[in-house]
Amino acid sequence: MFQLAVCAEMLYTEMPFLERVERLNAEGFQIEFWDWTKQDLSQLANTGAVFSNMSGYLKGNLTEDEGISQMLTSAEESLRAAEIIDVARLNLHGTGIDAVGLPFSPRTSINGRDWLRAAKTLERLACLAGKYDRVFTLENLNTKITHPGVPFSRVVDVLSLVEAVDNPNLRINLDFYHAQVDE
């Protein structure tokens, strides 16, 4: 049986965030949200809501030395935050994205070295998630409308990386909206 989740960032935007969470919870939905650093996690935990997914990193990327270091460090911070509200899944992308969805490190092409580095970074992230009994999910994003320059954005790219890592602590977050826009 599937349990539906709703992104609290997208609905009832006229309401304060905490009220959105409470309303969606009362309507029977699990809750997804993005930037956990903007929320009072203790207050969210007290709502009794089930949180399905949140951002799994604050900055970084999967392929560049400094970006990998930033992603690993901020992923661990996110895992500690996830414990407060008991979020089982934390979301990742090929690179960090800003508040309007644009990549901090835009890429127009990916080479074989990038694929290998991304897979190795994701292996490290999956092992880190295992230590916290959590799962990272790698999401496909569209590049035609809202996220131009995000690497590893197509479903086949995300699925290939997840299959290459082959770890139960790394899964795909198949976003049908983004897939239908680009693919």
Concise overview:
The protein is of the alpha/beta class and 183 residues long. Helix content is 41%, strand content 13%. It has six helices and six strands; from the N terminus they run βαβαβαβαβαβα.
Describe the secondary structure blueprint for this structure.
Blueprint: E1 5-7, H1 17-26, E2 30-32, H2 41-46, E3 51-55, H3 65-85, E4 89-92, H4 112-131, E5 135-139, H5 155-165, E6 170-173, H6 176-182
Helix pairs in contact: 3-4, 4-5
Report the strand count. Answer: 6
The low-pLDDT segments are none
Judging from the principal axes of the Cα atoms, what is the shape? globular
Structural class, from secondary structure content?
A: alpha/beta
Q: Biggest sheet, strands in spatial order?
A: 1-2-3-4-5-6
Helical stretch tally? 6
Q: How would you characterize this protein structure?
A:
This protein has 183 residues and is α/β, with parallel strands linked by helices. It is built from 6 helices and 6 strands; from the N terminus they run βαβαβαβαβαβα. It has helices at residues 17-26, 41-46, 65-85, 112-131, 155-165, 176-182; strands at residues 5-7, 30-32, 51-55, 89-92, 135-139, 170-173. It has a 6-stranded parallel sheet. Strand 3, helix 3 and strand 4 (89-92) form a beta-alpha-beta unit. Helix 3 runs parallel beside helix 4 and helix 4 crosses helix 5. The longest helix has 21 residues, at 65-85.
Key phrases:
183 residues; alpha/beta; 6-stranded parallel beta sheet; 6 helices; 6 strands; 13% strand
